[in-house]
Amino acid sequence: MQRVAKPKTQRGKRFLQDRESKIYENTKRAMFVKGGNTSQTVTQLLKELYTLKKIDAVMYKRKNILRPFEDETPLEFFSQKCDASLFMFGSHSKKRPNNIVIGRMFDYHVLDMIELGIDSFKSMFDIEGPKCPIGTKPCIMFAGEQFDTDPDYSRLKNLFADFFRGSVIKQIRLQGIEHVIMISAVDGKIYIRNYRILLKKSGSKVPRIELEDMGPSVDFTVRRTKIASDDLYKRSLKKPKTATIKKRKNISQDAFGSQLGRIHMQKQDLSNLQTRKMKGLKRQRKDNKGQGTSPKKSKQSVEEADT
Q: For residues 225 and 150, what is the distance between their CA atoms, to the nearest angstrom?
């Protein structure tokens, strides 16, 4: 039988409520884990990618002897411990030098996992100039036919978007778009570049946009992949019925935001419709000569006949 944890304090109760499944998910957290043996390149890359996701990320500074493709249990334990659904693991060996494993979890179990090899790396500290502030939501761009044709690359594209997208927001202002992540796939290699957006004067309301390299810049090669089956992947994308907003029929909005409604009624008989009474619409009575007489004249003629 599974042990049920009951909170003894209000703080513990809030902690368990935060871990419970929700209709609308929280922002996904990412954990960065170093292997038993790492190189300076791998360590620096993990630190700088952790800086880009610093608000929604956890960094394990100690070394952990793990082999994700052989045994996934330690990563699943770390995921449940820090409530993280994304992970990046770095290691270095003679067989696989400068190795990076990026993946994500579903129900605290590994869903997708892709191994990448670092071909070249340029640190953000080697590039002069200001950097984007911490917590900036990036604009992610993808380029390359392999992301659309190759199933492994298409899943890797979805994984990168899930890893770097940050929090979900409804509105954003133009000055808030400061960071661009460009991911390209060319000839079996993946190039990741980070740019800072500069808004320059253009003589009109729309500013002129320039991109400034701010780092880090990495070139990857895909090595091993472990992708979830289609059934499990569809199950992970399933949403509860309460999360889907039903479209209200016959209700719309105009350009000014006013709510308009449409009412369906049966066809009315306008011949029996009661209208406003007017003197001009009254029928005139006809005399013996066939000429119409007004009600006032007919009343006067009756009084004269009585006299």
A: 13
Residue predicted with more confidence, 59 or 305: 59
> What DSSP string describes the chain?
-PPPP--SSHHHHHHHHHHS--SSPPPPPEEEEE-SS--HHHHHHHHHHHHHT-TTEEEEEEE----TTT--HHHHHHHHHHT-SEEEEEE--SSS-SEEEEEEEETTEEEEEEEEEEEEEE-GGGS-S--PPTTPPPEEEEE-THHHH-HHHHHHHHHHHHHH--S--S---GGG--EEEEEEEETTEEEEEEEEEEEE--SSSSPEEEEEE-S-EEEEEEEEEE---HHHHHHHH---GGGSPPPPTTEEE-TT--EEE----PPP-GGG------GGGSPPEE-TTS-EE-HHHHHHHHHHHH-
| Mean pLDDT across the chain | 83
**Of 3-17, 107-121, 161-175, 250-264, minimum mean pLDDT range:** 3-17
Lowest-pLDDT choice from 69-73, 79-83, 244-248, 286-290: 286-290
Residue among 254, 280, 269, 131 at smallest CA distance from 194? 131
CA proximity to 213, closest of 179, 183, 190 = 179
